[in-house]
Amino acid sequence: MGLYTDLVDLGAMEHIINATVKFVKKELEGAEGGHDWWHIHRVWQRSKLIAQKEKADLLVVELGALLHDIADAKFHDGNEEIGPVKAVAFMQTQNIPAGTIKHVENIIRHISFKGGNNAREFYSPELGIVQDADRLDALGAIGIARAFNYGGFKNRPLYDPAIKPRLQMTREEYKASTAPTINHFYEKLLLLKDRMNTATGKALAEEKHAFMETFLEKFYEEWEGA
User: Fold this and answer.
1) What is the DSSP string of 33-62?
2) Into how many domains does the chain fold?
């Protein structure tokens, strides 16, 4: 159901997407394994899948998916401006309409979870699609692998029974958290199923969520060396 923008012909769009893929691959060389090119690739492919059933501008969807993590604030001392600025600067080299650039910039600025308690300041069907695709990559087997990969990258403990998950953190507290990786399941990952935007996203999230619950049951069963 997704529609290509009327402002860019299909040949030009293919050129833009190919150039964006090349740019993103180059920018993310050596990135942490949960936020590397393959994360982007999965979000991009899943965004296109979801967009098949939604009315949305596919150029915005694809650019939003490809550029959403071009400079994740987690890896830039919490600076949330680097990603949008870098994405906009690239898009301006590709003869992309100004309205499309602004839309993609808004997706990048508003896609993140950030504790889940921040008020929604911007929304569009395209953001909903890319956000669902990004959140789906935080669920299921890949989501588990990404969580522990990032925890290892930050040298965080797997689990500490004495440190309880915090469900009502502010945006600043969430960004500053150094809690064990298992806490992240409760503070973010297990909350995502009920925060999907699209019917397709909600359906895909159900199975992935159930898999994570099964994993946690086995984790606790084995924690004491059983």
Assistant:
1) GGGSHHHHHHHHHHHHHHHTTS--BHHHHH
2) 1
Count helices and strands in the chain by DSSP H and E runs? 10, 0
Q: CA dihedral defined by 79, 75, 185, 160, rounded to 10 degrees?
A: -110
Domain-embedded: residue 2: no
Task: Please state, as a whole number, how many other Cβ atoms lie within 10 Å of the Cβ of residue 50.
Answer: 25
Residues belonging to the chain? 226
Start-to-end Cα distance in the chain: 51
CA 101 to chain centre: 19
**What CATH number is given to the structural domain containing 106?**
1.10.3210.50
pLDDT at 113: 77
Q: Kindly tell me if the per-residue pLDDT of 200 is higher than 90.
A: yes
In a domain, 137, yes or no: yes
pLDDT at 97 over 90: yes
3 inside domain: no
With bands split at pLDDT 50, 70 and 90, how would you rate the model's confidence at 6?
low
